[in-house]
Design brief:
alpha+beta, Alpha-Beta Plaits, five-stranded antiparallel sheet, three-stranded antiparallel sheet, 12 strands, about 55% helix, about 20% strand
């Protein structure tokens, strides 16, 4: 048995050398892959214990991208490199090691960048709020990383990649010119996903209409209009408009006014201001800004009042305004003041005046 192990050979290497190489490959695989998994779990545990743990989460995700099959093949390739083979086998083994190392680095780099992009948004919510944008960014990052790896490997193998890169540039320009509108909408979609001027479920005014965001796609955004139909508007066109996002306001500013007749006595003109201000102050869920006797017009003394409803809900606003209006009617009736009505005075030839509404 001992004679067979040390004296028999396979492909120019003794059986003992093959055994040592196999054991070394197995130990190397277990150690490297086990350490990567252990560190990923350790950093994930640390991240769960700290409030500001984005760096730990990104590091854990990056280490979790360690591929067991790559580590195994790499361990085998390194073990084979320790054996003696005739040319050109060592060259191919070295090239295989370079490819495997490059592939694992590509997995780490792409995962690192994608994890950083995901967690750079508020509460790391990109994937949940806009899965299409998250998918586009993930695909773009991975494509760039793997194309870079391919070019590096081809260059290290002695392939002249200058002409290949030039052809890619010319082809890319041709494709970009042919798909100009599609690319504009694509980049607009990415801008919406990163900048978040609105999100699914929010109510916006986009210049040519109002509606609730239903879906943000690669080329267009779907909006449910107030009248019920679904609108599809290209992302680039949508971003060219001034967007009012009503879902993100915290309160509503309300301006209203009315007139009272010009023959109202001065003391009651001043009393009306105090009465209405007191009514607004007593209204629940509101905050008064100002209220005053604003001016004198042909139809009567003009008042203006401004207050805030402390919630953005439309129903809360109309409920508060209705309550204020009814109380103003009661208050004016209590002091003998009515709302001004537009009047017209006609002068007749006999000198009498007739008034009508």
């Amino acid at each position: 048995m001992e004679h067979w192990i040390f004296n028999s050979s396979w492909l120019g290497n003794t059986t003992f050398a093959w055994i040592i190489a196999g054991v070394g490959a197995l130990i190397g695989y277990i150690v490297v892959f086990g350490v990567a998994r252990f560190l990923a779990a350790h950093f994930r545990t640390l991240a769960s214990r700290h409030a500001n743990s984005q760096s730990l989460q990104i590091l854990s995700a990056t280490l979790s991208a360690t591929r067991g099959w790559i580590v195994l093949l790499l361990a085998i390739a390194v073990a084979l490199g320790s054996l003696s083979f005739p040319a050109p086998a060592p060259k191919y083994i070295g090239w295989a090691i370079a490819v495997l190392v490059g592939m694992q680095i590509a997995f780490w780099v792409s995962t690192l960048i994608v994890s950083w992009l995901k967690r750079s948004t508020p509460e790391g919510s990109m994937q949940n709020t806009n899965p299409i944008i998250y998918g586009i960014l993930t695909w773009t990052v991975e494509m760039l990383v793997w194309v870079t790896l391919l070019l590096v490997l081809l260059g290290s193998a002695g392939v002249n990649i200058s002409a290949f890169v030039a052809s890619l540039g010319v082809g890319g320009i041709a494709i970009a010119m042919a798909a100009k509108n599609v690319l504009e909408d694509l980049f607009a979609s990415i801008s919406i996903g990163l900048d978040k001027p609105f999100m699914v479920g929010e109510f916006i005014d986009f210049g040519i209409g109002l509606g609730t965001i239903k879906k943000v796609g690669i080329k267009s955004t779907r909006i449910e209009a107030l009248s019920g139909e679904e609108l599809a508007i290209s992302n680039s066109q949508l971003l060219q408009n001034l967007i009012h996002n009503y879902s993100r306001r915290q309160e509503r500013r309300i301006v209203f006014g009315f007139h009272i007749p010009l023959e109202t006595p001065r003391d009651k003109v001043e009393q009306v201001t105090h009465l209405v201000n007191d009514i607004i102050d007593a209204q629940d869920n509101t905050r008064r800004d100002r209220g005053f006797f604003e001016g004198i017009e042909l139809q009567g003394f003009r008042y203006e009042f401004v207050y805030y409803v402390l919630t953005p809900e439309y129903n809360d606003y109309v409920t508060a305004q209705q309550s204020i209006n009814l109380k103003i009617m009661d208050a004016l009736a209590g002091i003998g003041v009515s709302f001004a009505m537009p009047t017209r005075v006609m002068h007749t030839p006999n000198g009498s005046d007739n008034q009508g509404t």
